[in-house]
Every structure is written in C-alpha cells, then in structure tokens.
Amino acid sequence: MEDLKFLDFSKEMLENVNSQNGFIEIESYREKSRKGETISYWKSIAAIQEWREYSAHLMTQKYSRDVAYSNHTVKIYEVQREYNLKRTYVKDKNS
Questions:
Q1: CA distances from residue 15 to 11, 38, 45, 49, 93 in whole angstroms, order as listed
Q2: Residue extents of the structural domains in the chain
Q3: pLDDT tens digit string along 43-61?
Q4: Model confidence at 24, in pLDDT bands (50, 70, 90)?
C-alpha cells in the first residue's frame, strides 16, 4: 500500500531540491518489490550539508525513519570521472 503522506513529502522535496544551491540532478529507481535507490548529484560536500540541514528535508527524513522505511541507508560518494560510451549502429550494407 502506498504511503500517501510520504508521496506528498517526496513530491515537495523534488520541487525544493531543484532550487537548492549546488544541486545537479537526481535519479530514482524502484523494483516491483518497492525496493529502490535514489541518487542525487551535487557540486560539493558543502552543498550536500546545506541540503541535509534544510528544515523541510529534516522533517521528511524524520518521517522516513519513523514511518515510511524499515531500512534506510545514506551513502556519499565522490565521482572522480564519468565515461559515457554511446554506440552508433551502422546498417550493414548486406541487410
């Protein structure tokens, strides 16, 4: 069953994070089992800290810990490099 209050919190956080200083983008993935992962990208550790201390985000975190999630992990990584390989397909002249 969907937690409608948490869905409202999530929608509000997505709206707020887009105007947050240092925010780059967010990706979210969910399995049918509802297990998922959300990854946010930031320009600096200072920007992450500022978001972490944002009052509406603190309320959402508390609700997440107390009600919405039975297991919640936060990991902070630093991306050193990113590679993007895009393959271009050429139609075989014999096809």
A1: 6, 15, 21, 18, 49
A2: 1-95
A3: 999 999 998 888 888 887 8
A4: very high
Q: Are the C-beta atoms of 12 and 63 separated by less than 8 Å?
A: no
The model's pLDDT over 60-85, given as tens digits with 9 standing for 90+, comes to: 788 777 777 777 777 888 888 888 88
Q: Quickly count: other Cβ atoms within 10 Å of residue 6's Cβ.
A: 15
Q: For residue 62, what is the enclosing H or E element?
A: helix 55-63
CA distances from 10 to 14, 17, 38, 85, 91 (A): 6, 10, 11, 32, 44
**What is residue 36's DSSP assignment?**
E
CATH of domain 1-95: 3.30.70.100
Rounded Cα distance between 63 and 66, Å, is 5
